[in-house]
Every structure is written in C-alpha cells, then in structure tokens.
Amino acid sequence: MFGKKSKLTVVLFLATVLLSGCANNKMPDLSNKNSSSKVDQDKQPTVAIALARGKILQSSGLITIPVVLKNIGSNSTVISSKNFTLEVQGHKFNTFNAPGEASDYHQDFDSNRIWNNTLSFYLGTTLTPKQLQHVKLFYQMDNGKEIQAKVLTTSTNQNNIRSNLNNDMKSIGTYYSDITSFVKKNKEGEDISLKDSFSDPDYDKFKTWIVVPKKDPHNIIIKVLNQSNTDISISFNNIELVDRNNVETRVAPSYRNYFLIIPHGKYAMASVPMESKLDVSRKPFLTKVRTDDKDFFSTQDAIYPIETVISSNGKDINSLFSLTPKEYKKCNISWSKPVLDFENNKLSVIVELKDYFALHAKAKAFSLVGLNKDKTIGDKEYCCKLSPAKITKSDPTDMILSFKDLSLLKTYSNIELRYKNSKIMQIK
C-alpha cells in the first residue's frame, strides 16, 4: 500500500480559525536541521511534524480541520486517510465516513510535494473550550510510528502552505466552467462527447450539495460525490453564497487558503465557516464558484448544478441531510397516485425522492383541505398518524396518512394535501 520508506520526512500542519491575518509573516524553517526528531536517515526516516491549532471548527457534531502535509524527504510515499487520528482526552476518532459512502483514499506523495486537504471527524457532540485544549492530531507513518502534530505559531505565512499536489487536480471552478461550456456546445448542435472533450466519459457525474444549517448559519456543510474518473479539489477561496437580495457571502478568511479534495469514485464532506452569519430568511441561496482571480459564476447551466438548501434539521450531521416536504424542491420529489379512503379515514400516496436528501415529516403538519368554489377553506382535517415518517431511499414509497374523521370532506370536489399550509399535491 505504501511507497518507499527510507529518507522520508513528512511535515504536517493543522491550521485553523486563529491563523487568519498572518500572511506577511514567515513560515517556520522546515529543513531537517530544525527537525524535532533527528536521526540517521540511513536507519529510519527523519520526521518533523508541526501543528497549528486554534479555535477548531465545530458544527453539526463534526470537527473539521484543514491539514497540510509536506514531504521533504528524498523518497515517495502514499498518503492514507486511514492514518489520521484525532484524540480527545484519551478517546480516539478516525476520519468521518458516512455509512455506505466511500470516502477513504490513498494518494501518491512524491518528495518535496505539499498536500492540502480538510479532514472531518464525527464526535456527535460539541467540545467545551477546556476539552479543546486536549485535542491532539496524529498521523501514522510508513514505519508504523504515530507522530503527534506539534503547534505552529500564528506567525505562519499561509501563502507558503499552498499545495502543489492540488494543482495536479481539476479545480472546482475549472470543472464547472468545462461542463457548462460542454452543455452550451451540445445545445448549439456541436457533435462532441465527454470522452473526446475531457478524456473522461463520466466527467458529468460530479454532484455538490451545500447545506446551511438553520440552527448554525455561521457555517455551511459541503458534501460532494465524485463519480467521474477525474480527481477534483475545491478551494474554499473560490466559492461564495448569494442570497435572494444578491448579498454575497464568502468563506471566512481563515479557511480561504485550504482545500477539500474529492478523489474519483469518492464522497467528501466538510463544515466550513463563513465570513458572516447567513440570513436564512433571505432564501433561496445560490452557490457560485470561480477559477483563481476571476469572477464568480453560477453553475445553474451545468448538468448537475450545485444544490444549496437550508436544513431545519441541523443538530447532527446524521439528520442534517434530511428535508421536510415543504423544504424539498418540487423538481426533486414526486407525489403521485393518491387514494382517499373515507371509510377508514386514510390517505395513501406514492412518494419518490430524486435527490440525495432524505425526507422527514411530522404527522400533525399534514392536513387535508377542502376548498370552496371561491378557493377559500371550507374544512381542514389534520393528520394524526403517519407511516413512514422518514424516507431515505429513492425507490417509490407508499406513505399512509391517518385522520380522525374525514366525513366532512366527502362533499368537496376540490381537496388538497398540505404540509404546514403549503400545498403538496391535489387529491381531487
């Protein structure tokens, strides 16, 4: 799994929120002569690891940490996501991997290369300031030795930790520029293919979701599925959110020098701080991207545009990617084949999800509304029992809604199913 072991030096930096505003200072000397662990290179690798840790970002049960690895040894190695460990007061956590979603990776790491990525660990809770003081990050080296990251000062020049390994990957801005241009050319009648254009027949299979937790709007959660054959990286400096009033909000300065890597065939996820609190009342939000130093642009013309949603179910990452019937975009969910059973006071409908998000609902939020000829409400009956209350699969699902008494609705020729007074579908 790993490359050569001899003469390897890897330097790990962890830089967080407290490192902003330090771009004019020099980065610590990372040469072998200053290594904290100095041995004969002919016997074993010389390893120097330094860690800059400030206010760690916590959101929805996740701890997110930007990490930079530098190989200043003479030989190549392989970076393995499984080699990172977070330790909190003796408890150890591996990088977050959602059930059924492959997010582990191995990346070749040549001498003098810099690797910049963002790691997420699931704790399921929020650490206190005292607990944060005991957070430690470890990386297991080729020889099996665990190296504890050390602390860098806030004088670190963040321009010096920019990755040259990420430059070999497709950037988020370049990807969406490529795919929107491809769509435009196809619409104009050009005979082109993904394979001929990008040497990747699956280049279109890249999906990005941005979630704004309603209960934590200072941060966003980025989730990506890369089913293409191309490795892609997101520079946090090259994304912004725009609300309905055209107010633009970028990622916080402390994270703009960092990346999220999405290897081909993998998922990736990270919580990211914004430069200011997002006003969720100004929905909908649109996510824009750019290539370095160019204007931000919308991805709406891409085959799979970036989907930006506000989730009211944001206490924990395990429930964050779940929307109510009112929150779910109409184009991404299908309600069909309603059967109204007045005798048993039940309504059955077929629900089909066409998006990544699960559907969750409360029985009492559903109502059947009988409308008069002038469209005013004549009678309203609230649901008292719902099965299932949560749908996680994309297969068509039979949802059963039970009511106390539907007899008064029999006389209405116009009946709607509503959720929190928003129309879901026409029943009759």
TrEMBL record:
Extent of the signal sequence: 1-23
Keywords annotated in UniProt: Plasmid, Signal
Protein name in the entry: Lipoprotein
Organism: Lactobacillus iners
